[in-house]
Structures are given as C-alpha cells and as structure tokens.
C-alpha cells in the first residue's frame, strides 16, 4: 500500500487493528508504552518506534486509539508540530464530543486534517476486522480514510461533521449499557422462575426481546460460546470502559437538556459496579444483579 501509517495505542483494540493493517500490506509504525502491547505488536509484524512523535513523523495517516479525551488532546499537542503538513489524523478513541471537536480544530490550525472515528464491535471485532466505524469530519477526508478503515471494519458510516462520530458512539453505548442491564435482570428473573439459560436464549433470541447483548454477547455461559461469560468475564469490553462511556452519555444528556432517566440510572448502576469490578467485562453486571437478588446461579 502506498500510504504510510503511524499508530498510537496498541491495547486490546488498537493492537489487533494495527495488525490487520499490516496484514493488508500497509507500512505501519506504531508506539505504545506497555511492554506487553509492544511484545504482541512485534509478534504481529508491526514496526515499533520509541515514541509517539516518531510514530507520527513522516506518515500520511496517523491513527490514535487512546483511553480518554484529555490524553488525546495532550498527544495531539505533541504530534501536530512533528507531522508532515496535511497529515490526516484519525482518532478511534471514544471521547467527549467537545474534545473531539477541539482536537479537530487544533489539527486544522496546525495545517492538518482530522476525523473522529470511534468503533463498535469489541475485541473480537477488532481481531476479525469486522468493527463498525462512526466517522465525523469532512467528506474528502472521509473518502481518503475509507480504504484504511475498511481494512479494520466491516461497516464504515460517515455521520457528518467533526464530533459526530463520537455523538453516534455515545448514543450507541448508552443503548448497549441499558440493554445489558435489562437483559441481565430478565435472565435472573428467568432463573427465579425456573427457566434454563438455553431455553431463555432459544425463545428471546428470535422474539421481540432480541438484542445484540443476547445474541452476540450473552452474559451467561453456554448459549453463545464466544461471549466473555464463558471465560470468567475476562474483557472484552471492560466495565471501566462502559462506566466511562455512560459518564460521557450522561454529560451529553445534561448539556443538551435531554430527559434521560434510564441512561442516568444505567450510568449509576455501572458506576457502582465499577468500584469493585472495573477489570471485568461489562456483561458481568449480571453477577451483580443476581447477587442483589439473593440468587446463587442458573436454574437446573
């Protein structure tokens, strides 16, 4: 591939994404301070450099996958002066809409271009190259980024101007958090009523209660063998990240005058669960529902 890519952030999501770019023939130069992330990236054939600035210098496209908006803006402050004029920055982190728009403004002021392109699909989607990208930014920049994003994702949607990708992601993850709590409550109720998990799944997965949380990410072992529930709730998508995303959603609800009682309650539930289980997959919320309900496990 003719375009060279700098990649910052090689964690559970970023690492597989960078590896897929290498597999597709892109020249990828990446940085992550974590020794474990470096070791895996090296095994995946990703060329490692010793700093974020080195990753961004001389590249056509710079992709970031970081943990929060403050870090994205700090990293941009370091990278923008070092990058070649007109570099296309693509931030795949999930951050506040205001931070995404501020990052785009900073990139433009430094003579570059920027897209916010958060993802949905989890670690399995990152590994398989089947992520969904929600992209905010200019039409021409989106067109340039599209071939690169299509390597890492099965669906790429241009959602409008800068920040709109983050807007779509925040709304999506608010739905996801709410649906996982609702599903968990229904599963625990089914346990109390004598329903087996498999019977519950066989009915609901093809009925009006069907959801991605059930059919792809079922929070109990068995019905969906690839879900984190079958691996002691190892993330996946960690509770700490869901807690962060629901916090962003609540901030957006309040800032825009939206009556979002269910979203706020979901955020409160995950905030409490995160205090003891932030390193578990967010689908482990079912264990909290069960515990609070005095239950000990599934029906036989």
From TrEMBL:
PROSITE patterns associated with the record: 3_HYDROXYISOBUT_DH (PS00895)
Domain 6-phosphogluconate dehydrogenase NADP-binding: from-to ranges: 4-160
Sequence ranges assigned to domain 3-hydroxyisobutyrate dehydrogenase-like NAD-binding in this UniProt record: 163-286
EC number(s) recorded for this UniProt protein: 1.1.1.31
Molecular function terms from GO: 3-hydroxyisobutyrate dehydrogenase activity
Catalytic activity: 3-hydroxy-2-methylpropanoate + NAD(+) = 2-methyl-3-oxopropanoate + NADH + H(+)
Pathway the protein contributes to: Amino-acid degradation; L-valine degradation
InterPro entries: 3-OH-isobutyrate_DH-rel_CS, 6-PGluconate_DH-like_C_sf, 6PGD_dom2, 6PGDH_NADP-bd, HIBADH, HIBADH-like_NADP-bd, HIBADH-related, NAD(P)-bd_dom_sf
Protein keywords: Branched-chain amino acid catabolism, NAD, Oxidoreductase
Similarity comment: family membership: Belongs to the HIBADH-related family.
Protein name: 3-hydroxyisobutyrate dehydrogenase
Record organism: Nocardia rhamnosiphila
């Amino acid at each position: 591939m003719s375009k060279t890519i700098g990649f910052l952030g090689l964690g559970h999501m970023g690492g597989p994404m960078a590896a897929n770019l290498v597999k597709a023939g892109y020249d990828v130069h990446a940085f992550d301070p974590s020794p474990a992330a470096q070791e895996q990236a090296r095994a995946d054939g990703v060329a490692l450099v010793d700093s974020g600035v080195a990753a961004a210098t001389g590249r056509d496209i710079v992709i970031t996958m970081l943990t929060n908006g403050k870090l994205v803006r700090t990293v941009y402050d370091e990278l923008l002066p070092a990058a070649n004029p007109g570099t296309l920055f693509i931030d795949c982190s999930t951050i506040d809409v205001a931070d995404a728009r501020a990052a785009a403004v900073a990139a433009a002021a430094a003579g570059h271009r920027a897209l916010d392109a958060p993802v949905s699909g989890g670690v399995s989607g990152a590994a398989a190259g089947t992520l969904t990208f929600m992209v905010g930014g200019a039409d021409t920049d989106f067109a340039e980024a599209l071939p690169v994003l299509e390597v890492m994702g099965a669906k790429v949607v241009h959602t409008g101007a800068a920040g709109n990708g983050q807007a779509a992601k925040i709304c999506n993850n608010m739905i996801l958090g709410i649906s996982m709590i609702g599903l968990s409550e229904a599963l625990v109720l089914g346990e109390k009523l004598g329903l087996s998990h498999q019977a519950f799944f066989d009915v609901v997965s093809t009925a009006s209660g069907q959801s991605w949380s059930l059919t792809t990410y079922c929070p109990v072992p068995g019905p969906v063998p690839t879900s984190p529930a079958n691996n002691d709730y190892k993330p996946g998508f960690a509770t700490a990240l869901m807690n962060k995303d629901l916090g962003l959603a609540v901030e957006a609800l309040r800032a825009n005058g939206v009556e979002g009682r269910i979203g706020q309650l979901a955020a409160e539930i995950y905030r409490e669960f995160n205090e003891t289980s932030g390193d578990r997959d967010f689908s482990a919320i079912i264990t909290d529902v069960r515990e609070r309900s005095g239950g000990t496990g599934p029906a036989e």
